[in-house]
Amino acid sequence: IENAIRTAGTAPSGANKQPWHFVVVTNQDVRTQIRKAAELEEKEFYSHRASPEWLEALAPLGTDQNKPFLESASCLIAIFLKKFSGQKDGKKQKNYYTAESVGIASGMLITALHYSGIATLTHTPNPMRFLNEILIRPKDERPYLLLVAGFPEKNAVVPDIKRQELNEIASFVN
Q1: What whole-number distance in Å separates Cα of residue 53 and Cα of residue 40?
Q2: Is the pTM here over 0.90, yes or no?
Q3: Measured between alpha carbons, how far is 126 from 84 in angstroms, rounded to an integer?
Q4: Neighbouring-strand partners of residue 88
């Protein structure tokens, strides 16, 4: 996990500001708190916020408001986006291209974990501000992604999802 985070920390970022913070959570009590808060947001999503089309798109994946994996996985990695960093002359320093930078770092983290044999699941209940409170992060940091990470159980069932073919996701100009 540490080496994967080191890898993520090498991601390119706007003006090299590195506008991310990773919180690795293995404490069972904290993971239980996160699950309870996430499931409250998910209940609202599935019962009120999501459109019928969105719920239909999710149906083949078998997801619902229950998120037991938040407690059973080896760890959770909360990824925070920092719009500002440090202070210079008493003023916060603005970070640039934060969403793009944190997105690249998150992708590198997931790839590094996969190459280490660790399975991941991205989880993004919305809103995720409960993570700031539970993980004692500053209010000016925004939860970007909650990454579930661990070794899969022997009987784990992965949805049978199809990936697009190369010609559907790429064009080549010679």
Answers
A1: 21
A2: yes
A3: 22
A4: 91
